[in-house]
Amino acid sequence: MDNNRTLGQRLDDFYGLEQQLSSEETQIRDAVRRFVDAEVRPHAGEWWQAGTFPTDLIPKLAELGVFGPTLPEQYGGLELSPIAYGLMMQELERGDSGLRSFASVQSGLAMYAIYRYGSEEQKTRYLPEMARGHIIGCFGLTEPDAGSDPAAMRSVAKSVPGGVKITGVKRWITNGNLAKIAIVWAKDDTGTIRGYIVRTDAMGFAAKHITTKASMRMSVTSELYLDEVFVPEDHILPLSRGLGSPLGCLTQARYGIAWGTVGAALDCLNEAALYAKSRIAFGKPIAATQLIQERLVDMLSLTVDMQLKALQLGRLYETGVMRYPHVSLAKRDNARAALVVARMAREILGGNGISVDYGPIRHMANLETVDTYEGTYEVHTLIVGRDLVEENAF
Amino acid sequence: MKILVMVKQVPDTATRIRVGGDGASIASDGIKWVINPYDEFAIEEALQIRERLHGEVVVVSVGPQRVEEAIRQTLAMGVDRGVHVKTDVALDSYQAAAALAAVARQETFDLILTGKQAVDDDAAQVGPLMSVLLEVPQVTVVLKLSINPDTQRLIAERELEGAIEVVELPYPAVITAQRGLNEPRYPTLPNIMKAKKKEIRVELLESLGIDVVPKVRITALTEPPARPVAKILTGDPLEAAEQLVNLLHHEAKVL
Ligand SMILES: Cc1cc2nc3c(=O)[nH]c(=O)nc-3n(C[C@H](O)[C@H](O)[C@H](O)COP(=O)(O)OP(=O)(O)OC[C@H]3O[C@@H](n4cnc5c(N)ncnc54)[C@H](O)[C@@H]3O)c2cc1C
């Protein structure tokens, strides 16, 4: 039956998972894919090399509906199912991991933090504006000396009349220089971690663009400096309390990564297979050699594993039984598998694989970040390990 | 303005078609089904007319269960509601036109829009047959359409070989769309989400009271002969040119 489908269809859906998706889910996937094909793919290499995020796309992305799509309509959302959201992340990351990061941070981290831990007033004030892309948010958890171990953070929020004053440094903050608001996590007078909505134009707040990245170059990453930044009482996230709060947001974003990485792998697989069919060496297409076929099949196999994991994770989510170790396993394995697929694709493209005129090396470099952020491979290993044997090895 | 758009679900043109086991139909496994591309121009035109003149756009499609997906896709483009004439039987052009005309009579309409032909059987019959059955005027292969609701008349531009013909007619009427009429829109995510709440009325073919005996029966389908392997001439340009002339003369016999 596979005979009458195009190469792209065969690669994207080798295991017939498409049949498990609703028509609405495939339409949403296709709508995002069309957008990315038209607006992002032709320029991705160029933007990446220049180290710029295409801010012109923000209104178009908002119109497409990628900001806070799972939230209720009253907050500007579309009430998308987790699987539809996952497919959206897949298609954004097929374009570039930086594009997916932009959307992930806006939706899964910043908007979700307000939705989950915010007051009704905060939600109605910020979420619809964020869905429209008028307000971009960032999420400041990591610090120069606290990444995998965020409980070691040094940022403090000292009580003052009418609110708090935050002092601290956050590093590696996606969208830091694009954001109007930062969700900053800091310890209060009692040492409890809480979330704060900080306006980036507030006195004492500064963001510095990190320009030395050799990965995720299309995404803006910043260092945030907070020097006694005053945050009024009504901008403290009232329901946030303890490390569990930022981790709750991370679970959302990690779910998106489990799907997004499938897109990066599919893009690499497609590029490699097409290239192998058309590149002639020793008088025949390299696709007609056993070694290249083995490599392509290995890539396909890893990608199918990723798809199965992402889809099952989506089902666990939709049926309300998803636990964070489930998400950790999928984030860990899919980020790593996508990295392996991207490397193999890079190799199949030979010298051309070294150029950002082709996707694989860009994906490969990006995926080094994806493997590290939102919990490194090791951190997720320890989360799943602890869940498995009930021993804490951190 | 009430506009009916008649839509057919066809195999994606990118799909490689194979003849089925019975030798008279196509193998349906592995096929990706899409909205007939010419019908997309009809849908877009209907939506644009509604944006200008208000009213309702209703899509009607005949076919098995899978057709519901095509209807949902039109709802996601912005169509108001759908009618699905359900049948598992493959219909000929006349039967399809009769079924669609029966729905059109139930629904009533100011305009019927559809593609100039469906890309699966290329018959280009359904639009014209509907106009005959409904006893309304028709214009086919339309490139441009303007409507004057005050005089209840249409002006349509049609594509002819090497010329554009401009015609004027009263409506209700049947219009078949040509590529170039407009640029069909893509569904947006909010519309995809809204589409699931829109109504699709299901009508069984049997309940429409039309003649179910086909007038035309497909007796055989064969695949086109396999294209011979292309010859690539390499080497010295002078020699290659000589070889080419030789081949054109002796093998292709065009010189
Ligand atoms: C491009 C980019 C964007 C980012 N965006 C954001 C953002 O928007 N918001 C945000 O808050 N953060 C962001 N981050 C930060 C990211 O989440 C952290 O870099 C990550 O959590 C790792 O922390 P770290 O860099 O401090 O590494 P460390 O925690 O110092 O880890 C160094 C190494 O040690 C390993 N390790 C640590 N502890 C253990 C252990 N117990 N056992 C075994 N191995 C261990 C780690 O796995 C890693 O390999 C971003 C990072 C990058 C690169």
Defining traits:
heterodimer; A: 394 residues; alpha+beta; 4-stranded antiparallel β-sheet; globular; B: 255 residues; alpha/beta; Rossmann fold; two-stranded antiparallel ribbon; 6 helices; 29% helix; 26% strand; binds flavin-adenine dinucleotide
Provide the structure class of chain B. alpha/beta
When the domains of chain B are counted, the total is 2
Mean pLDDT of chain A: 96
Order of helices and strands of chain A: HHHHHHHEEEEEEEHEEHHHH
Bound molecules: flavin-adenine dinucleotide
Strand ordering within the main sheet of chain A: 2-3-7-6
Oligomer: heterodimer
Largest sheet of chain B: 9 strands, mixed
State the helicity of chain A in percent bands.
Answer: 40-55%
- Read across the widest sheet of chain B, the strand sequence of neighbours is 9-8-7-10-6-1-4-5-11
> If classified by CATH, what would the architecture of the largest domain in chain B be?
3-Layer(aba) Sandwich
Q: How would you sum up the global shape of chain B?
A: globular
Number of distinct beta strands of chain B? 11
Amino- and carboxy-terminal Cα gap of chain B: 59 Å
Cα radius of gyration of chain A in angstroms = 21 Å
Largest interface: A-B, 22 and 23 residues
CATH superfamily of the largest domain in chain B: HUPs
